[in-house]
Amino acid sequence: MALMTTDYDTIAAISTPPGVGGISIVRLSGSEALNIARRIYRGKDLARVATDTINYGHIIDPQADHREIDEVMVSVMRAPKTYTCEDVIEINCHGGLQVTNQILQLVLRNGARLAEPGEFTKRAFLNGRIDLSQSEAVMDLIEAKTDAARKAALNQLDGNLSVVIKKLRQEIVDVLANVEVNIDYPEYDGAEEVTTQLMLERATAIKEKIANLLKTAQQGKVLRDGLNTAIVGRPNVGKSSLLNRLLHEEKAIVTDVPGTTRDTLDEYVNVAGVPLHLIDTAGIHTTTDKVEQIGVDRSRAAIQQADLVLLVLNASEPLTDSDQELLDATAETNRIILLNKTDLPQQLTAADLPQDEKTAIIKTSAVTTDGTQALENVIAKMFFTDGITRNQTDVMVTNARHISLLQQALDSLTTVIDGLQAGLPVDIAQIDLQNAWEQLGEITGDNYDEELMDQLFEQFCIGK
Ligand SMILES: Nc1nc2c(c(=O)[nH]1)N(C=O)[C@@H](CNc1ccc(C(=O)N[C@@H](CCC(=O)O)C(=O)O)cc1)CN2
Ligand SMILES: Nc1nc2c(ncn2[C@@H]2O[C@H](COP(=O)(O)OP(=O)(O)OP(=O)(O)O)[C@@H](O)[C@H]2O)c(=O)[nH]1
Ligand SMILES: [Mg+2]
Asked: What is the dihedral of CA 415, 420, 424, 428, to 10 degrees?
């Protein structure tokens, strides 16, 4: 996309989170940003300072006798080499609701309009500095809850996904151009067959590349959102102790009183490179206590929503009906069974459990910490069968919108291939190939519709 700056109105927002803090930033972007700042600032003439400088001064209210509002530092960044490609002013003021809100009100009274959520980033997109998938990466970066998610988002922000998508689109354009030439100049007999053959080969190759990209989506989604992992088991078997061990922190309350955990508790933790969204649940059993019953219901719900269940059993006691119920309830889920309290005399072993080869059974103990490493290894193996170490530049698809568009493009290519193989004319296949090209273009926003874009940026935070 060409760098083409349109003259939009000047927007302003508080870009730091609301509340008391050391410093807050009020950000302005647009052709009037510098003039607005000059009206409310006392210090060096901002029109004469060099670009990309930060300048000491005071914010004053020109409509109220020039009374001082705050002592500040003001950054001046001139178009087009800025975040939005427009003139950007950032007022670094003292953190605090009164100061920040008064400065925001002041810039709004002096010619700026309140920015919509995500509008600064939207301008960076509209002005061609970043594409749509990079804009989405900004959001992912802010919301990253794990290091892996942060890395994947930064990789996308750097444009690595965009490059892959652009290449795929170029390959499609090349095929279409080639077909066009062959149709227009059938210089020899059999041009039709040659064209069909070429289209078939190329479409198959492109389809395979898209399929490979889609294969990263499962891992990508896990890396982005964390794997929903529910720790379940009847009361007092050691669920909260396990959570604490995986967190390396005494987060959950552990006591010898059954029913200690009354509500689900969740935490993000990196286990051997797999970001887990760990959910400690209340022990599942029948109870007459109302509060406890709600906790138990939530535990059952946690099993339903889990990508992975860690089912904890107490190896120092025989299997109970509740244990059996949980074994049945999780039979269809990805699960790992933990035989806990193996430091005590054992009354329950793997031999007493249903034998199915896809469920790993691990002996653990909160006392000796045995089994923690084994558990981490099994989790890593379950989700990174093709090797856990990915390169920083390896492209990974993490976004549901991208996944859906890639799937659509894949379907379009399948239609192309099936059609050609069934002997349909080349111009029908051309249409589906064109569709794939458009679907891929929606990922980067080379092809976008206004409504979709508004929906997308609405989800951003204010000031971003
Ligand atoms: N104070 C402040 N901190 C911030 C931001 C900001 O806008 N303000 N950012 C905002 O999210 C992030 C940094 N991202 C940025 C990305 C691009 C440009 C930018 O000006 N790009 C120009 C010039 C690059 C250059 O000088 O080489 C360009 O790409 O043309 C600025 C910030 C995080 N920290
Ligand atoms: N000996 C031994 N005791 C353990 C082990 N794991 C946990 N415990 C003890 O068992 C008791 C219950 O542990 P918790 O981690 O609170 O069990 P829970 O499953 O979260 O219990 P609820 O929240 O009540 O459902 C505590 O006294 C722990 O110290 C273990 O491996 N060996
Ligand atoms: Mg507990």
From this structure: 50
